[in-house]
Amino acid sequence: MTPHVLYEIPVATVPVRLVMGGVCMLFVLAIFGWWLPRVVKYLRDRSSARNAVVIGIFLLPVALGFAPLIILFSLIRNPITYVTDAGVMEEGVFYGQPVSFAWSDINHVDCHSTRGGSRLRSMTLVASDGRRIEIGNASGVDIYSVRELLQNQLGSAAMHYCRQLRP
User: Fold this and answer.
1) Backbone angles phi, psi at 145, to 5 degrees
2) Close Cβ partners of 6 (under 8 Å, ≥ 6 residues apart)
3) Which residues contact 167 (CB under 8 A, 6 or more apart)?
4) Closest by alpha carbon to 120, among 110, 130, 128?
5) What element of type H or E holds 156?
6) Phi and psi dihedrals of 12, rounded to 5?
7) Rounded to whole angstroms, how far apart are CA atoms 98 and 24?
8) Cβ neighbours for 4, distance < 8 A, ≥ 6 positions apart
9) DSSP string for 91-154
10) Per the count of CB atoms within 10 A, which of 25, 90, 144, 145 is most buried?
11) Burial zone of 150 (CB within 10 Å; 0-12 exposed, 13-18 middle, 19+ buried)
12) Residue 57's pLDDT is what?
């Protein structure tokens, strides 16, 4: 039987994805649309003896241009953390495998607040074997109700560092 999903917590909201996608696309267009054609034209006009060193120097921004593409694809993929009646599961992206905890696997929860301590920023669920799932507050989900659910499931001993934070 499939566990009942209580909360779906995306990593990024739609506005964040749109803004980051636009910034990444501008960066990629600047490198591949403006820089690369100029480098190719410059290298055609140079002698081939110095081209090996010049190619390495001029194509470095092209190699760096792939980093924003990976970020853009990660944002488009937008992994989701699911809090279910059986435990917590986080989807994987390019850099990691999916992580899944049963309620009994979670050792403790670390809460991270804003600088003044007035608002809950994120929670890190830590399993007995050291695996982690990060739940952020930028997704539009009421993170305080998620914290309350975690406290009901895990008990106050596992939520020691989250008790002083109030909504």
Assistant:
1) -75, -30
2) 83, 84, 85, 149
3) 120, 144
4) 110
5) none
6) -130, 145
7) 25
8) 84, 85
9) ---TT---EEEEGGGEEEEEEEE-TTSSSEEEEEEEETTS-EEEEES-SSS-HHHHHHHHHHHH
10) 90
11) buried
12) 74
The answer to whether 103 and 87 have CB atoms below 8 angstroms apart is yes
Return the DSSP state at 4: P
Per-residue pLDDT tens for 74-120? 767 677 888 888 888 888 766 667 888 888 898 888 887 777 666 77
Q: Which residues pair with 84 in a beta bridge?
A: 5
Could you identify the residue written with the tokens 């010049």? Answer: 54
Which DSSP string do the residues of 133-147 spell out, in sequence order?
Answer: EEEES-SSS-HHHHH
For residue 100, give the amino acid letter.
Answer: S
Confidence band of 137 (pLDDT split at 50, 70, 90): low
52: which 2 tokens? 């090996």
